[in-house]
Amino acid sequence: MLRFYSLAFLLVSAFGLLLPSQSFAQLSIPGKLLTYRTLDLDSGQELERSRRWQLSDSHGARELTAIDYAVGTEVLAECTFASGFARPATMFRSIMRSKTGELERSDFDTFDPGYYPFLAKPLAPGAQPGACVSKSSLDLPTLMRGGQIETWIWSDAGSVGAILRPEENEKLTVPAGSFDALRVRIDLDLSKVFPHVPDLFLKLVKPHFTIWITRSEPYYVLKMAGFGAPNDKLH
């Protein structure tokens, strides 16, 4: 699999400016270990390589991500879905170690909106925590039929809307093989993060990125690119 533009760590570090240290959960499928590479589009240099897989046991459903960066840094992250992957995640934890094995950072979060008193209330129905977005809760069959879908992502920084719009069908070749893919544009709605900014300005600066997913279940994420307009330099 090939993934463009390092988003820090599905939707997620696509929200990197708002939601730091994201794991971008659900770039995995049951029974498979998927490997994604993040490349610099100018030099072709590999910036990071991540491996993602799922587990289900007495502790609930979990998504694990192991990331190796070119500088030698390693990250291991876990998203727990106590009610299954079809429901929003309930917990996130991660550790970051340097090339020499030194612990550089650790994170732990229990996803309960009650712990986030500064969020715009109420949260939109079905809103998901930004660190662990579950594609299982998205109506992807509607997207495949040409319909638009929306979801809301939240953290202590506020709520971010994601509007997914299908564009074109493509035959896409990545290291894992060739696939019939749907190109999807994702626009971000920042109105709840910046409630006092004029609507016109938010429409003009609305960030977006693009993903390619397989047209058949279980809907692999094949590639991701963004942000910016088509002629902008993608990094």
What can you tell me about this protein's structure?
This protein has 235 residues and is mainly beta. Helices cover 5% and strands 45% of the residues. It contains two helices and 13 strands. A hairpin with a 2-residue loop joins strand 10 and strand 11. The protein starts with a strand and ends in a 9-residue tail after the last strand. The N terminus and C terminus are likely disordered.
Q: Return Rg in Å.
A: 17 Å
Strand tally is 13
**Helix fraction by DSSP (H/I, runs of at least 4):** under 10%
Order of helices and strands: EEEEEEEEHEEEHEE
What is the mean pLDDT?
A: 77
Low-confidence stretches: 1-25, 228-235
Main traits of this protein?
235 residues, mainly beta, six-stranded mixed β-sheet, 2 helices, 13 strands, disordered N terminus
Write the layout of secondary structure elements.
Layout (H helix, E strand, L loop, with lengths): L1 E3 L29 E6 L6 E12 L2 E10 L4 E8 L9 E7 L5 E8 L17 E2 L10 H5 L4 E7 L2 E17 L2 E13 L9 H6 L3 E7 L6 E6 L9
Parallel strand pairs: 1-2, 8-9
Antiparallel strand pairs: 2-3, 3-4, 4-5, 5-6, 6-7, 9-10, 10-11, 11-12, 12-13
Brief account:
The chain is mainly beta and 235 residues long. The chain has helices at residues 140-144, 199-204, and strands at residues 2-4, 34-39, 46-57, 60-69, 74-81, 91-97, 103-110, 128-129, 149-155, 158-174, 177-189, 208-214, 221-226. It has one domain.
